[in-house]
Design a protein that fits this description.
The structure holds two protein chains of two kinds. Helices cover about 55% and strands about 10% of the residues of chain A. Chain A contains nine helices and five strands; from the N terminus they run E-H-E-H-E-H-E-H-E-H-H-H-H-H. The chains are: A alpha/beta, B alpha+beta.
Chain lengths: ~200, ~350
Amino acid sequence: MKEDTAIVYVLDDDSRVREALSSLLLSMGLRVEAFSSAAEYLTFERPDSPACLVLDLNLPGMSGLELQRKIAGEDAPPIVFLTGHGDIPSSVRAMKAGAVEFLLKPFDHRELLRAIDTAVAQDREMRVKRAEISELRRRYALLTPRERQVLPFIVAGMLNKQTAAELGISEITIQVHRAQIMRKMAASSLADLVKIAGKLGIS
Amino acid sequence: MNTLSNLRRYGIAVIACGVALVIASPLNAESSCFLLAIIVSSLFGGRGPGYLAVALSAAAFDFFFLPARLSLYSPTSSYLRFGVFLAAAFTASQLIEARRRIEQTLSQTQARLSRATQIATVAEFAAAIAHEISQPLSAVVANAHACTQWLSGEPPNLTNARLATERIARDGKDAGEVVQHIRALFKKTAPEKVPLNINTVIEEVIRLLRNEIIKSKIAVETNLEKTLPATLGDRVQLQQVIFNLLLNGIEAMQTVTNRPKRLLIRSNLEGTDTIRVEIQDYGPGLTDSEKVFEAFYTTKEKGMGMGLSICRSIVEAHGGQMGNTPSEEPGTTFFFTLPLEAGSST
C-alpha cells in the first residue's frame, strides 16, 4: 500500500465492534489500526500519514471525551465519535471540541464512511498546512538575530531609512539585511514576505 | 352512595351544631363551642358542611345568646360580638378548606413524581438494554457490508468474506442471548439446576471481574472452605448474583481513599445443610439495609436499582436467603445461603 493511504484508528472497547469496523474499513481499501483503550492508543507510534480516529465515548479508564481533550492541540487526527450511549450534553461537548461527526450505534455504514472521508480530507489539509509552516519555521531559523530584528520593520511597511534610524544602524546595512532576509525566506516579493510573516505570526 | 356520603357530611355539621348548642349554655362559652362545631364540620365534612355549620351557629347564636333585637336597651356591643363571631367562624372554615386543598395537591404531586421516577428508571433500563443489543448489532451490520465489499473485489477475497460471515453468526447469536437474558430476568423462570460447587462459581466470577478489580486497585481476598459439598443451582444465575455483589462492592469503594480497598469473599458450611457465602467490602456502608433489595431503589448515580432485587429473587428461587449484616468496621457485608443438594427440593 502506498504511504499516502489514509489510516483509520479505531478505538472501541468492544472487540466485536473493533473487528467488524476493521474488516469493513480494510475492505474499503483503508489502513486500520484498532485499539481497546485510550492508553493503548496513546502509546502507539503513529506513522506519518493522513489519518482519522473513530472513537467510542465510553471506554475503560480514560473516556472518549477525556482523550479528545488530552490530544487536542497536538497534531492529532480529526475525530469521528461512534457511540452507543449518545446523549445531548456529550455530543455537544464533542462537537464543540472539534469532532468531525458524532454517530450513534447502530450506525449507517455510508454515514460512517462519509464522516471518515471528511475527517481524512481535513487531516490532509491540516498536514499540508503544518508542513508549510514547519518549512517556513526552518527558513526563519536560518536568519541571524539581527535579521530577525529587522524583519518586523520590513513587513510593517517601514522604509529602510526609518528602520535604520529606529535600530541605530546605517541604511546600507539594512539593505543588506533585507536582501538576505528575502533570499533566506525564499520570498519572491515584499508582498510574499508579508504573507510568510503572517503565517509565522510575525507582525 | 354519593348522596349518602353527602348526607353524612352535612349530618356532621348539624349534629356538631346541636351538641354545641346544648353544652354552650351550661358552660357559658357559646363562641368557643360554636367555633369548635364549625371547625369539626369543616375538617371532617369539607367546605359545604363547614358553611352550613357557620349558618346554623350564627342562627343559634343570634337566637339564643344575643339579647332580643327589638328591645330598647339592645347594646351595640352584642352586634359587635355577633360580627366578630361570624368573622372568626368564616375564617376558620376557610383556613381548614385551604389546608385540605394543599394536602390534596401534595399527594397528587407525590403520586405524579413517583410515577415519573419510575418511568425514568424504566427509560434508563431500556437505554442500557438498547446499548447491549446495539453493540453486536452494529458489528453484524458492519460485517455484512464488509463481506459484500470483500466479495465484490476483483478477485473476490473469499477468506476475509468467510471470516466476516462467521463474525456475523457469532455476534447475531450474542444479540439473541441478550434478548433471552432479559426475558429470563423478567419471566422468573424456574432455574435450570445442576449440581455445582459454589467455590468454582466464585472463582469464575472473580476471573470475569479481573479487569475491573485491577482498574479499581482493589485487593480481593478469598476464604473459601475447601471441602464444600455440591449444591444444586443454575450456574449462570448464581454467577449473576455473585457478579452483582462483587461489582457493588467494587463500586462502593470507588470513593474510598483513606483506607485499603479490600473485598473479602468467604464461603462456609452453616450447620449441616446450608452453604453460606459472604461478600464484605470496606466502602461507606449502607444507610438503609433493607431498602437496597427493593426494585428501582439505587444509591448509584447511574444505577437502575434492579441488581439486588434480581439477586434476591434468584437466591430465593434456589431455596436460599439473602441479606446483609451490619459490621463495626466501615463497609457492608452481603450474604446469601443455599441449601445443600440433599436437602434441596426442586
